């Protein structure tokens, strides 16, 4: 996996104001200057005259697989910048991951932004550069997009929508309804980091803790996993609702039970302590760099070795198994020897975490 190495900064060719104005969404020269300077030049999104769409060679896509994957996601995180990432990195990684968990090789992204009047240009530029650097490191270009500016109060600073396309590997079939009794539940590392990092970054709690988001693009990790365990049945990134939501969706869709073990579930001590202070359950906290993988038992050890051999999977763990008892239920064996139901939340513990 390539590290995120920022590309050299290029000084702007035009003189832009210090903040975004409604004129930047009006379709005139101010809008063109903003788009050219902040987005097209930063993303290197077009090699010639800008068009209203990106164009792809079908033969090139078909060489990567036999089906197309297509996804879209909106990002409204508060704050825009947090330890381990920002809204731009989150948007790129989140969309890449939504493609990758479908066994697709990500090909390209689009980016649409809704900007509140008055947003500092330095903030917008920092987000755009972060998106460009993250996409460049992942090898997944941002090829098209859209920009809208709304009046003060009509949105909160900056909202981003990213859409991605990818090509699914020939012969790969993964899905939330494919789990079978006896299958093994794997995760690629420590859980709950992103949700805890966002809440801590808001500064309302004045807690002395440095928790970093796990925000990362996981397509290279997943490529390593499916090479070692081609029979993998389910892949999901555990974002809103955390691992608990993924396992409940899986149990319901597959008509199976899931049993996980608290002692085998990797959670950082500072995240665990953070949750205990606030009365939160880390199983429900969002992750932006973690997958849940359901693999047949005969491939579980090979899958675990492959995950642990990757930089984004060093703390990978087997946390449980799929069962034929209590269909639709997720149960945790606690560290005290008892059991508790891990149910689906009605809402979310934390709003605006992605």
Short description:
The chain has 354 residues and is an alpha+beta fold. The protein is built from nine helices and 13 strands.
Radius of gyration: 21 Å
Task: Please identify the top-level CATH class of the largest domain.
Answer: Alpha Beta
Total strands: 13
Strand order of the largest sheet: 8-10-7-11-9-12-13
**Percentage of residues in DSSP E strands:** 15-25%
State the separation between the terminal residues, measured CA to CA: 24 Å
Number of domains: 2
Overall shape: it is globular
Give the CATH topology of the largest domain: Phosphoribosyl-aminoimidazole Synthetase, Chain A, domain 2
The CATH homologous superfamily name of the largest domain equals PurM-like C-terminal domain
* Count of runs of 4 or more consecutive helical residues: 9
Helix content: 25-40%
Give the topology string: H per helix, E per strand: HHEEEHEHEEEHHEHEHEHEEE
Mean pLDDT: 92
**The biggest beta sheet, please?**
7 strands, mixed
Name given to the CATH architecture of the largest domain: Alpha-Beta Complex
Low-pLDDT runs of 5+ residues are 1-5
Structural class, by secondary structure, is alpha+beta
Notes on the structure:
The protein has 354 residues and is an alpha+beta fold. It folds into two domains: 22-168, PurM-like, N-terminal domain (60s Ribosomal Protein L30, Chain: A); 184-341, PurM-like C-terminal domain (Phosphoribosyl-aminoimidazole Synthetase, Chain A, domain 2, Alpha-Beta Complex), CATH 3.90.650. It is built from nine helices and 13 strands. It has helices spanning 29-43, 58-62, 87-100, 121-138, 193-201, 219-228, 242-254, 269-278, 300-308, and strands spanning 67-75, 81-82, 85-86, 104-116, 142-150, 158-168, 184-187, 234-237, 257-261, 291-295, 317-323, 330-333, 339-341. The strands form three sheets. The protein has a seven-stranded mixed beta sheet with strand order 8-10-7-11-9-12-13. Strands 1-6-4-5 form a four-stranded mixed beta sheet, with helices on one face.
